[in-house]
From TrEMBL:
Membrane spanning residue stretches: 16-37, 58-76, 82-104, 125-144, 150-167, 174-192
Record protein name field: Signal peptide peptidase-like 1
Subcellular location: Endomembrane system
Source organism of this protein record: Kingdonia uniflora
Membrane association type: Multi-pass membrane protein
UniProt cross-references to SMART domains, sorted A to Z: PSN (SM00730)
Keyword vocabulary terms for this entry: Hydrolase, Membrane, Transmembrane, Transmembrane helix
PANTHER family: SIGNAL PEPTIDE PEPTIDASE, SIGNAL PEPTIDE PEPTIDASE-LIKE 3
Length: 267
């Protein structure tokens, strides 16, 4: 009876919000992937063709993920700034991918003219899309400066949606194979990695904070406002919510003050 009573914890604000967010992100990812596929077929634009996994690639994903996990476990402090810079660029692209359809819908809804203003990487950008790129860049910049968990979640969700939209599984056999491999991957690294590596590899990597390259540059140049830039960042590879959700938590708090769910668990 006591065990059942403990389950009421799931209905507290933070766990409930985490679960509802995971369900909403899963649904939004599937919907965006479906619309993206239809969009590519309608426009016959295959310059951003989706990646269709075959059996060997499905088997390689858990192996490559394991290698990346070990790399971050042993060398995270050495490569954290590179990872942060790469994540920032990927986040701008993911945010743009998620919100670009709304720019098109808004223009068509109100009959607005959206002229082309530039051409970059064999693609033409309209004025609305250029403004969206600036807005996405500003959002990522705000995350780099503040490290706020809300911005972290926004970037993580956009990366999740973009990944699901661009990676396709051609049939149920490959889907089942991939899910089985990822199930074994999760079980090993969460529950058995401590026996082999002396620590819970998955938990260690998930709770590590990356060095902020913006703070490093600002500190080396003695720029004003250095105290406003966070030294450490939670990378948007997971969604996080403060355990005391209604009370709120300031940026820079300990990882133990947050509940978290990896993007891979939603994908």
């Amino acid at each position: 009876m006591d065990s059942l009573w403990k389950l009421t914890y799931l209905f507290e604000p933070a766990p409930l919000t985490l679960m509802l967010t995971a369900v909403a992100v899963t649904y939004a990812s599937a919907l965006r992937a479906l619309n993206y596929g239809k969009e590519m077929e309608r426009n016959r634009d295959f310059s951003e063709a989706s990646i269709t996994l075959d059996r060997s690639q499905a088997l390689m994903i858990p192996l490559m993920s394991s290698g990346s996990l070990l790399l971050m476990f042993y060398l995270f402090s050495s490569v954290s700034q590179i990872l942060t810079a790469f994540t920032a660029v990927a986040s701008v692209s993911a945010l743009f991918f998620c919100f670009a359809p709304y720019v098109t819908y808004f223009n068509s809804k109100f009959g607005l003219v959206d002229p082309f203003v530039s051409r970059c990487c064999s693609k033409s950008f309209t004025r609305g899309q250029a403004l969206l790129v600036l807005l996405c860049t500003a959002t990522v910049s705000a995350w780099l400066i503040s490290g706020h968990w809300v911005l972290n979640n926004m970037l993580g969700i956009s990366i999740c949606i973009a990944f699901v939209s661009h990676v396709r599984l051609p049939n149920i056999k490959i889907c089942a194979l991939l899910l089985c491999c990822l199930f074994v991957y999760d079980i090993f690294w969460v529950f058995f990695s401590e026996r082999f590596f002396g620590a819970n590899v998955m938990l260690s990597v998930a709770t590590q904070q990356a060095s902020n390259p913006v703070h490093t540059v600002a500190n080396s140049l003695s720029l004003p406002g250095l105290q406003l830039i966070t030294k450490k960042l939670e990378l948007p590879v997971k969604i996080v919510f403060p355990r005391n959700l209604l009370g709120g938590i300031v940026p820079g708090s300990q990882a133990s003050d947050f509940m978290m769910l990896g993007l891979g668990d939603m994908v």
